[in-house]
Amino acid sequence: MYLSGLFGFRALFAWNSPGLFVATLVVTPVMQVLFFVTLGAAFDYQNASFFVIGNAVQVAAAAGISGMVSVIADERQIGTLSSIIGSPSSSTTVFIGRTLPGVVLGFLVSALTAVLGFSLTGSPIPPDHLLLFALVLAVAAFSCTALGLFLSALGLLYRDIYQIAGAAYLLLLIVSGANFLRQDLPGWVQLLGGVLPQAHAIDAARSLAVGVGAGSAWASTLLEFVVGVGWLLLALVGMKVLESLARKRATLDLY
C-alpha cells in the first residue's frame, strides 16, 4: 500500500523550480515564525518560544493539507483518476498509501522550521524532551495529512479544491492556538480547535518547553493522535460516499 503511495508521489511530484519548492516549504514557514515572533514582541504578548513552537507545529499543514488535496486533483488533471476508481483494486487503499509521503514531508517541514526558529530566537526545547518533541511533530503531521485526505475526497465533486485547502490552512492557523492562548479564544472556537488537528499537539509541545512534565505532553499527544484517526476514518467514509456521488454526477473527469 505504502509502496504504491511512494511510486504515486514520485509520479505526481512536480515543481516549477527547486527554488520555488524550497521557498514554499522552508522559507515561508520560517518567515511565518519570524512574523509572529516579531508581532508578539511588539504587543508584549508571550515569548519567542511560544510562537516558534506553535508555528513549527502548524506549518505541517503546508505539506499535509496542500499536498494531500493534490492527490485527486492531479490524478484528474493527467487523466488517470477514472482508471484508479474503475480498477479492481481498492481506490481507497491507493489513496491511503499516498498519506505516507505527506506525513514524512510534513514532519520534515515542522522539524526544520523548529530548528531554524529556535536557532534564530535562542529558545530551544530541553534536550531530554527532544525525542518526545519529535514524536509530537510526527503525530501532528499525521493528523494534518488525515484532514488533507478528507479534503482531497471533496475533489471528487468539486474542482476548486485548492481554495478549500487554503481556507483550511488559515482556519488551523486561528483555531489551533498557534499564536494565541486557546483560553483567550471564544468558547466555540476552542471546541472547533479541539476536533481539528494541531491544537493538542501544540499544547503538548508547549508543555515540554515550559517543563510541565512528560505526562501532560503524552496525554495531549494521544488526543492529537485520536483526532488524526478520527479524520482518517471520516476520509475513508467520505471517499466511498463521494466516489458514488461523483459517478452519478459524472464529475470524475471534470477539471
Q: Overview of this structure, please?
A:
The protein is mainly alpha-helical. The protein has one domain (1-249). Helices cover 77% and strands 0% of the residues. It has helices spanning 2-12, 18-42, 48-58, 60-77, 81-86, 91-97, 99-121, 130-154, 161-175, 187-195, 199-209, 214-249. Helix 7 (99-121) packs across helix 8. The protein is elongated and about 55 Å long. The chain starts with a helix and ends in a 6-residue tail after the last helix. The model has no long low-confidence stretch (mean pLDDT 83).
List keywords for this structure.
255 residues; mainly alpha; 0% strand; elongated
What's the arrangement of secondary structure elements?
Layout: H1 2-12, H2 18-42, H3 48-58, H4 60-77, H5 81-86, H6 91-97, H7 99-121, H8 130-154, H9 161-175, H10 187-195, H11 199-209, H12 214-249
* Discrete helix count: 12
Order of helices and strands: HHHHHHHHHHHH
Tally the beta strands.
0
User: Overall pLDDT, averaged?
Assistant: 83
Strand proportion? under 5%
Specify the helix fraction band.
over 70%
Query: Which blocks of ≥5 consecutive residues have pLDDT under 50?
Result: none
Tell me which oligomeric state these chains represent. single chain
Structure, briefly:
It is built from twelve helices and no strands. It is an all-alpha fold and 255 residues long.
